[in-house]
Amino acid sequence: QVQLVESGGGLVQAGGSLRLSCAASGRTFSTYAMGWFRQAPGKEREFVATIWWSTGLTYYADAVKGRFTISREYSKNTVYLQMNSLKPEDTAVYYCAADTTWRPNYSDSLKNLNEYDYWGQGTQVTVSS
Fold it and tell me: Tell me: the pLDDT tens digits for 86-98?
């Protein structure tokens, strides 16, 4: 079991920044990737970014590339999402997720939410125009 707790959401004006944190506990040694997803009202949950835990390699959705940065603090089992130049369309509940299924390397399938085994409770991000 892996437990995930997100924090750092809030209300920010367009053009502003926020940093989300996700602290993992439990069987964290079995984690291969950590991802961020988001879900806006009336929409499906969508991929935002993912990080390959062992090497720190990162991958982003086109909508956030160049504005968001995913990173991890290995010793603290924590993953971050630095969000800059926020837009009203970034408004959503942001979820952290952990993939604990063995795989030898990163795969684009990690952009699919079904590849993740554990989820946090979500944190609300609201960007006002």
Answer: 999 999 999 999 9
